[in-house]
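Troubleshooting entry. The earlier prediction with PRP gave an output that would not parse, so I re-checked the input for stray whitespace and re-submitted. Clean input:
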Amino acid sequence: MQVHVVDHPLISHKLTMLRDEATDSPTFRRLVDELVTLLTYEATRDVRVEPVEVQTPVALAAGVHLTDPRPLVVPILRAGLGMLEGMQRLLPTAEVGFLGMMRNEETLEAVTYAERLPDDLTGRQCYVLDPMLATVGSIAAAIHFLVKRGANDITAITLLAAPEGVARIESELAGIGVPVTLVTAALDEGLNELGYIVPGLGDAGDRLYGVVD
Ligand code: PRP
Ligand code: URA
């Protein structure tokens, strides 16, 4: 798996505000949105395009357009939903599939409670959106879903990742036969005993949408 930590002063600035426990929910949502747009620019460096010619008012110009079928973007509910608009701003014609996953906070296993993806993803390029890569249960399960349906190129976009999670996903995906790239705004110090990223930003879903029991 390729890991790309995007190093940019604007990303660091916005991420610092995002981490701050004093940042309120509306500001948190706006920052997530802006950060994802910045990350999308990096994450789509290898988005598939094909050559095309257009007629300008002056002459024919050689260019490119996105290849069909368009990429599939998969936000992992709940918190990944807060990343969708930021991605769609740059990829408005991408298709969107949904996965609902919830971490059991005792076992830290990911439980899938919703799935709305195309049945056949043969040869498709997919982007998974999830703000936190902690113990990796959610993102690993999402990648397995996509690979089982035929996706052959997967990029996961996160805001924060824990080194333990990155190591685990690398071993879980060894031999999967599909290139997987992780694009993240930061690689943090590690996980605490509750499976939270340190220093992290707390519970991303709760900070976006409020606490649900
Ligand atoms: C959070 C977060 C990730 C997951 C990361 O979701 O949004 O999806 O935990 O943890 P992991 O790497 O250990 O799987 P949560 O389960 O809290 O659900 P939510 O998005 O509905 O808040
Ligand atoms: N999920 C979150 O929302 N935050 C963490 O730090 C870990 C998992």
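This one parsed fine. Residues 2-209 form a domain with the Rossmann fold fold (CATH 3.40.50.2020).
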